[in-house]
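Methods: example folding runs. The two proteins below were folded one after another, and each record is reproduced exactly as written to the output file, sequence line first and structure-token line second.
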Amino acid sequence: MNKLVMNFLVTEGYVEAAEKFRMESGTHPDIDLATITDRMAVKKAQRLIELIGNGKVEESLEFAQEELAPRAEENQSFLEELERTISLLAFEDTSNCPVGELLDISQRLKTASEVNAAVLTSQSHEKDPKLPSLLKMLIWAQNKLDKKAAYPCINDLSNARLEDPTF
């Protein structure tokens, strides 16, 4: 159980909680906790969108040319996304432009999540924590079993206490 909790803390980027949990439980993470801080910094960066959102046209173009364009030469889909993002610069009012959704917070969160998953995968670590999946599986299994048998089950996930079946 401790390994599952540690996996969740590491995967979701809770470095301080992971460190405290390591000290209290003696459970060591599968990954260096310093890399979590780096990963969270990358996840928050999304530099081009931030530059465009702040109206820094020259800095946006310079960053795109120096940092992103070389990568786009090797990847056609990346080039298309870069071109789409740079097109935001053509509009003074980005709320009414055809690609204005790129500046929405929901798009930023989606991008941050994708970056986080890519970094985790590159570090040979799972991109999703195991604990939420296991809890979903537990609920699914209990729902299936409820129709067929009486058994000790966990009705309150926050306590994780087994309750005797009612006959």
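Second run, written to the same file directly after the first:
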Amino acid sequence: MLIVRIANFVHSTSGGLRTALRELGQGYQAAGHQAVLITPGPRATDEQTPYGRVVTLPGPVVPGLGGYRVLLNRLAVTKLLDRLRPDRLEVHDRSTLRWLGAWARRAGVPSMMVSHESLDGLLRLFGPGRSLGLRAADRLNARSARAFDAIVCTTGWAEREFTRLGATPIRVPLGVDLARFAPANRNPGVRSRFAEPDQVLLLHCGRLSAEKEPRLSLAALAELRAAGVDARLVVAGDGPLRTALEQEALDRKLPATFLGHVADRALLDALLASADVGVAPGPIETFGLAALETLASGTPVVARASSALPEVIGDAGIAADGTGTAYAAAIRTLLDRPAAARRAAARAQAERFPWAGAVDGFLAVHGLTRVRSGRAHDADPAVSH
């Protein structure tokens, strides 16, 4: 079967959505199906990759989002889909690509929309207020539920946007590359580049943008140091807030190292396994691939209580309110646990989320099964964005 996936807001170098698209495509191919991915880019391209055929159509950059592009030319997208004649359509954008549900109905193609972000949360953060944002999100989510044959959510937290409307989304968790991200990547030499042997090394992995609230990681670092904890922070990721955060750390004399996008996979993997605690401050994450990769590396995570991450990290981490004081307290609680025990618990939690399970779950929503055995592997990381 030919499964055509289409997505907007896919970063050219990294990101959780990019990881998911690659892993699922590779999993579909390994399972005996054909995978085609359509994304926006600076120019038209068409190439074969280990995760299927990738077709790029020209799409403009969205101002202020750090390089993300969108497909706006509906005619070009429609012509491409008409030529491809997919057996299944998988849409990874709930807003700008909602119109594809109508195309699929006309073409007689079963369709799925995957909810990767919280529309309610985004409108709550940047919209007209809690009550107006909730009503607007409900209207748009109801349209999505009507437009597609199936809505896939990766956590129960993400499902609630739809279930409160009477819709019936299907829950399929994403996964993690358990072979690549592993405690064995722990590297004393890499750790010594960023922290002294007796210091606490914190690691923030994620995009430095407003909806991720990365300033909370600096606030937690400041609280720890004020309490006498000799902690340092490494930030792996880039985004529009990076310059401001670097200046804030400098002004407050906080020992924070900003690496930007980490293209060196070995360095990134070693950092994930060598930190003492990972910090995930995003308040509206619907899954959290970066946090899951951190757990798989044997590093526990403090996550935002308001997000879906408590479902993902389980007892291997701690959920905290969105203040530096709460995050610092959670970090200290994790550090009070024996190192071997907290690292083993982190890895055990991550092992509940193999990519093979995610691939099988997505195929089941499509009404498909494996034609041959195989699994996804070796995807690019979600964390360095």
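Comment on the second run: The longest strand covers residues 34-41.
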